[in-house]
Structures are given as C-alpha cells and as structure tokens.
Predict the structure.
Amino acid sequence: MKYLVLIVTALLFVTTAMAGTIKVTNNSSNPDVHKLWKERIIPMFEKENPGIKVKMTIYDHEAYKTAIRNFLQAEPPDVVNWFSGNRMKFFVEQGLFEDVSDVWNKHDLHAKLSSARSTVTLDGKQWGVPTTYYQWGFYYRKDIFAKYGLGEPRSMGDLMHISETLKKNGITPFTIGTKYLWTAAGWFDFLNLRVNGYDFHMALMDGNISYEDKRLDKVFDIWGDLARKGYYIKNHASYSWQEGQAPMINGDAAMYLMGNFVVPDLVKAGLDGKIGYFQFPVIDGSVRTYEDAPTDSMHIPSRAKNKTDAKKFLAFFARADIQGIIAEAAGMLPANNQSPTPTDEFLKIGFKVLSEAAGLAQFYDRDTTPEMAKEGMKGFQEFMVFPDREKQIRKRIEKVRKRIFKK
Amino acid sequence: MQANYWDRNQLKFAPVFFLAPAMLFFAVYVLHPIFSSLWISFFEWDGVGEMIWVGIGNYVEMWDDDRVHTAILNNLLWLVFFLLAPPLSLALALFLNQDLSEIKYAKSLFFFPFVISPVVVGLIFSWFYNPKYGLLDSFLELFGLQPLALLSDENLANFGIIAAAMWPQIAYCLILYLAGLAALNKEIIESARIDGASGWAMFWNIILPQLRPATFIAVVVSVLGALRSFDLVAIMTQGGPWGSTTVLAYEMVEQAIFNYRMGYGAALATILFLILDIYIAWFLIRVWLNEKGRL
C-alpha cells in the first residue's frame, strides 16, 4: 500500500511537471531565426504565460522533412513547424495533426489571417496557424538593364524582347540551377498560372487533369522556345540554386526567377542597389494574375501531450507583433494582416504583389503530392535541356499521375 | 558420486550460451529487418497511414518501370568498372612493393582516398567536375576544349560518378594486395628463381597463385561495392540528370523516403537482396569448400 501511494504521487508529480512544459521544433535554415526564438520570442512567451516552459529543438531543414514522419507517430513534440497546403493535408488525412479551429475562433484569426486561411483549412476546419510567406518573381540586374536601355517587362512580348537584346550582347537572360529540381518547377508554375489560370493549375495539382492535356501545349511551347533560343545558362543541371547565383553576380546573366530568400545572398555578394524585382509578366490578358507564395505554418500533433499550452503557443504565434518580428528576421512576410508593414524594399513590393494577386498557389512541390512533384520536376529539368523531348517527357509524367491519383 | 544435471550437460549447453547473444542480435537486427521488409513489399504504404495489401503488385510495377530498368543497367555498368579495380590495384601494388625507404610516402598517398569519407570524395569530385570553376574544366581549357558538364550530361554522368567511386575502391584493393605481397613465401620464390623462372612466368605461376586469398577478397568487396553503391550517387547527382544515374539502392531510398512509398521501396530492396544473394551464396560456398579442402 505504501508503495502504491508512492507510485501514484510520483506519477502525479510527473504529469504536473509536464503540464508546464511544451516542446517545440524549429526547422528554419536561417541561424538568425534560431537566435531570435531563443533570445526574444520564447522569453516573451514565458513571461506572458508564467508557469509554462518552452523547450525548443532545432532541426536541419532537409532532414526535418523525413524526421517529422517518425516523430509524429512515435513521440511528437507539442508544436511543430510545417508547410501548409498539400504537405499539411497529408498529415491531416493520417490523423496526425490536431484540429485547432477553436484557437481560430477564440482569437478572431479568421479575419486577421484571412489571406492564408485557405491553405490550412480542410473540411471546413483549421489545422494549423500560418506564420510567414514570401513572394516569387524575377530578380534582375538593374545596371545591366540600364546599360541596354531596357525597362521592366509588362508582357511576355516585352520579356522576349529583353531576352533577345541581352542575348545579342552576350549576356544570358536567365540564370537557374536545376540540380535539385525545384527551381525548374517555379517556371512551370508561373507559365501555367499565366496561361491557364489558378483553377486549371490547382486541378492539375490535384491530379484531375492529364499532363498530356492540350491546354498545357502553350505552356511547353513558350518554355521550350526560351530553352531553344539559349536563354537559360548552359549546364544549369550541374548547379544548385545557390551556384546559379554566380552568373548573375558576375554579370554573365541578368535575371533569376526565384523566391525572395535569394536577396540576402545577392546583397552580400556586393549587388546592393543593383538588384530589382518584377512580377512574372502577363501572357494572356484575359487571365488574372495569380502568384506562387509558399506559406510556412505551425501545427499541433494529435498525439501531443500538452495540447492546452500548445494552443496558447499557437495563438501567440498568430499575433501580429510576433509574426512581424519573425518575418523581419527571416526576410519573409507576416501572414497576419495587422502586422506592421515591412520596411525592406523587396518585401514591400512582395507584399503589394501578393495582396493584389487574384489567388495564391503554394508551389509545385507543396501543391501536389511528394511523389508526383519529384517525377514532374525531373521531367521539367530534362525538358529545359532537351525541349524536343516534350512528348516523351509529358507521357512519362502522365503515367506517374495516373498511377498516383488512379484517375 | 552422482553428478547433477548441469554438470553432466555442461559441455552441451556451453556453446549455446556463448552463441546466444550473437544469435539474438543477429535475429533482431538482421533477420527481422529482412523478413519485415519482404512483408512490407506486398503492401502499398506511405510509412504513416494504413497498409493496403497489393500482393505482388509492386513487383509487377517494377517490371514496367523505366526508372528501375535504368537502375539495373547502371548497376551493371558499375559492376563492369569495379571489376577493373582488382587488376589495376594489383599493378599498382607491384609497383609500390619495392625496397625503397621513400616508397612509404608514395604508399600513404595511395591509401589516402580510402581513408577519407565517401561523402568527402563525392564533394571533391563534384567540385572537380564543376563546368564553370572545376579543375577538369581548367584542364580542358588548356587544350582549347569546351567545358564538359560531366554530371549533368545523361551520357557521361554515370562515368563521372564511377570514376569517383573507383578512386577509393582501387586504394582498398591496393591495401589488400600489399598485405598479400608482404606475406609471400620467400622460399618458393627463391626456388623458382633457381629453376630459372623470371618475369611474366614468375608472376603468373608463382606470385599470383600465392595472392589468391587477396584476389578473392578484392573481387568480393568490389562486386559488393558496385551493387550497393549509393553514397556517391546521392551526393553527386541525386540520381540525376532526370534519373539517368540512379542505381537500385538509390532508387530504393528515393521511393521509400522521398516519395513516401515504403512498399515499393521494400520491393526494390528485396530485388537488390536477391541479386546480392546469388553472389553471397557463391561466396559462402567457395569459403566452405575451401575450408573443407583444408580439413
């Protein structure tokens, strides 16, 4: 009997101790963000919520993508970082993420996070809190454009004209590094969004449209034309996206279709003041402008031990001031529309572009299933080198789509 | 005096107890994974959710999967080149096996690639092959040749990776041969010399037969190295460009880990295991016959 009492008190003690601790993950590849969490964000939260201790685990960005699948099932932390959209859907469907609609209702997040709300909504419920997002578009060398009297393009025709002029003067229009595949998907996303619009693009991502569909012909025609004319740097399949920056820094290439996270690198390489940004130009005037804007988010695993405190942490991260601080450090935009407007030049343009967009896609490898994305992107990489293989490539991608979506 | 049960059977039980820990670990860490991956290969499973029985569906799909065909052909290519490693390293070993005190510095240089991690080898070669800043490119430029994008050319990338893999592999076989050469029986060589053997005849009839154990191991590690090649592919090309350098082991990881297809990955692992099995069986039979011959 004495032992039993001891064990019971011991257990009670353990559970009460746990009630005051939450484990959170951090998968940012930016060390400044880790420092910010440790030194500012977490102390702030602990001060506002006395009795709750936050334990942060830092993960390598790439390794995290595979690790999360194991720990969500085995012994999950209380709050995890992840990507909204299809990548989130995968875990929601497995029952591994917690429904957090109550957090949304309680803190009036539907209005504050309205723009990114759809990316974490499934079956009418919210499964996480979007934190930051960023724009994609062309980053270009202003000095090179000025040298040849070129302005920012408004249409695909303008872009072709710019490319022709640059090419004539020995400058490759576009730099890219497709070794890790996803950079090529950026081109596909934008071309398809500009040619066929959002609904078609999303139906394709959901596996409802064939990759051999006639409506995609124009996308591959334009893309293939750019490749055949030698508008992309040579041997781009040898380079990572970081190595792809080199030709632009050297002035051998003038434009880079990329996410806003490329800016700090270019600035550090001495291009401060020489870089500009423009939106992917219009191809078909009757199609509204849609953009890629990958959103990062935070979720509570359904097997988390301390959901009560985890929800407090989630609500804290949905707040305008907190999102503002984090976005600034990461070079991204806060999802909360009441956060202070960014002061950085590129974030300002990005904010404008994204708020004026008719709709936001996440990105090819976040909008479709992981396997479809992998096989699709391999095809895109090959297409950019051998545009004449279009038929075989599309056939191969289509075969994979049929198997995955069984449609 | 009546001996108790333990005393009577001690000799019978002792080996069992001595073997038990090893057997237990072998069962848990080798046998169990083999059978469970065989089991998983009959399912469609994303590694998280529900497992759906598909019977031999994964194997049927493999039959018709271009990526798997490429992987098998590439594995064969690896095998052909890796089998060149033992003769090449034997030639090097004969050259390095000289009675010069300075030669040990040269030897250590040849050992070097075997000592460094394959990840580092992969990185060094990736930089070496870089078409813009790589050493290979600068070298080609000296001769007025165009830069060669070795790792992003679907026809050349395989050779680029295999060349990188051969570097440590030759060093490995070299170590085996140098050890073999150090253990040669001097008396046999002496008597052969007295009988007038020299040059090629000496090497072929006297030296090489004595190096048989070294050759055997060198061939074994080269074949296994070629079939389970993974690290360099993962580091240098990720199977690219567009899947043209994939090998079975890499395809397995890509399907299971990146594409969330545990079942298909397990099926690939099973096939790879069966291919290796043929070879391992041959190896075991050889070892067994060899030991029986000695008895």
Q: What stands out?
A: Chain B has a mean pLDDT of 87. Residues 5-40 of chain B form the longest helix (36 residues). The CA atoms of residues 197 and 206 of chain B lie 9 Å apart. Chain B is about 75% helix and 0% strand.
